[in-house]
Amino acid sequence: AQKITQTQPGMFVQEKEAVTLDCTYDTSDPSYGLFWYKQPSSGEMIFLIYQGSYDQQNATEGRYSLNFQKARKSANLVISASQLGDSAMYFCAMRESLQGAQKLVFGQGTRLTINP
Amino acid sequence: DTEVTQTPKHLVMGMTNKKSLKCEQHMGHRAMYWYKQKAKKPPELMFVYSYEKLSINESVPSRFSPECPNSSLLNLHLHALQPEDSALYLCASSQARGFGTDTQYFGPGTRLTVL
Questions:
Q1: CA nearest to A6 within chain B
Q2: A1 falls in which pLDDT band (50, 70, 90)?
Q3: Which of A16, A19, A21, A25 is 20 to 30 A from A85 in CA distance terms?
């Protein structure tokens, strides 16, 4: 069975600093996809970034980048130049493909607080 | 446009009430999902519809009844709920390719309180 582990329940970072949120995964499937979502206190899950298992380069989306280390089964999210609006819950997730649809397996999440 | 809409935003209901949650997307996605999220926990998958057919039911109690009238709409009918069913209910949609950059996009959720 697929499993996602986020070992940091909470992180506190000063504004404008870079922050790394850890995510490790376990799967026996050679083809998989990894996602990061942000959930502010309002509740909506906001898609941030995607990394495929066969992607040769680390994914980047604006201030977000993914440090993908396949051999170590880690997919850490890096946020550069953090902003107050980055304060939220962050979830790492792995896709399990079933019958054309997909099931996301989520980690427990990391609550990020950006201090001014 | 990656918008998924959900109504209502908040819902308070008694244990004997019948209510429905609604979800809509206009991205041409063919897979739609219902998740339940308790406070400080990750979302838990409840149901998946693929091409308007129920493809996954994660052993959800029968007091939750999903419906997919067409490819853009997803309903969750609620009946005889328990206080422990109080949670944030999230709807999501995806292209239903099941591989590559097929991404689930979520709505803002409905906060349900069962009294």
A1: B42
A2: confident
A3: A25
For an interface test with A, give the residue of B102, B105, B112 to mutate (most A CBs within 10 A).
B102
pLDDT at A98 over 80: no
**pLDDT of amino acid B77:** 98
**pLDDT tens digit string along A38-97?**
999 999 999 999 999 999 899 999 999 999 999 999 999 999 999 999 999 999 999 887
For A1-63, list the strands marked E by DSSP. 3-5, 10-14, 19-21, 24-26, 33-39, 46-52, 60-61
Look at B99 and A33 and tell me if their CB atoms are within 8 Å. Answer: yes
pLDDT at B101: 75
Contacts of A50 in chain B (CB under 8 A): 101, 103
Longest CA–CA span in chain A (Å) reads 46
List chain B residues with CB under 8 Å of A94: none
Task: Quote the pLDDT of residue B96.
Answer: 75
What is the spatial distance between Cα A89 and Cα A108, in angstroms, rounded to a whole number? 10
Nearest residue on chain A to B101, judged by CA atoms?
A: A50
